[in-house]
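[09:14] KT: can someone run the structure on this one? pasting the chain below
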Amino acid sequence: GTPKVFWLSGFTYPTGFLKAMQQQHGRRNGISIDQLDWEFTVLEAETTTITQSAKEGTYIRGIFLEGAGWDPQGCLCEPEPMALTKMMPLIHFRPIITKKVAMKGKYNCPVYMYPIRTG
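[09:31] RB: done, structure tokens below
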């Protein structure tokens, strides 16, 4: 069957997987994938506690922070001493219709597929 949680860093081409998830959602709901974007919710749950797949979108693990930490309150924080990377908790990736709304109070954080930051 389909995994309940996907290990994003295990994919050779993770953007292809994410685009396929948007396409699947778009077909199911009659929406063009050009109109879809992502909404992200960081979860406190452990991978082992997830008993079923997300109703919309997917649960993702395997994203790492570099030079930062994750506060249990749900925000970025200073890294622990001598810690270069920190694994993010589970994240619920949910396709949503693109809105031209200001992201007040949210940080639009870049995600890189490779350690070298290009593009």
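[09:33] KT: thanks! The chain is about 15% helix and 30% strand.
[09:34] RB: yep, looked fine to me
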